[in-house]
Amino acid sequence: MDVLNEGHQAGFSKDTLKRAKARAKIRSEKADFDGGWVWRIRQRT
Question: Counting CB atoms within 10 angstroms of each CB, which of 21, 29, 42, 45 has the fewest?
Fold first, then answer.
């Protein structure tokens, strides 16, 4: 699932989704060398 596309279809702007990502402390990382980016939710300890 592409979070930005799904969010846009739900009526959210890209900036709104990025602000929500920052507030939730979600980080981006490369899936693999040739792949795209994925969002990872930090696990609570």
Answer: 45
pLDDT tens for the chain, 45 residues: list them: 688 899 999 999 999 999 999 998 899 888 888 878 888 887 766
**In this predicted structure, what is the pLDDT of residue 13?**
95
Sign of CA dihedral 7, 9, 14, 19: negative
Bridge-partner residues for 30, per DSSP?
37
- Give Cα separations from 11 to 14, 18, 23, 35, 43 (angstroms): 10, 14, 19, 27, 28
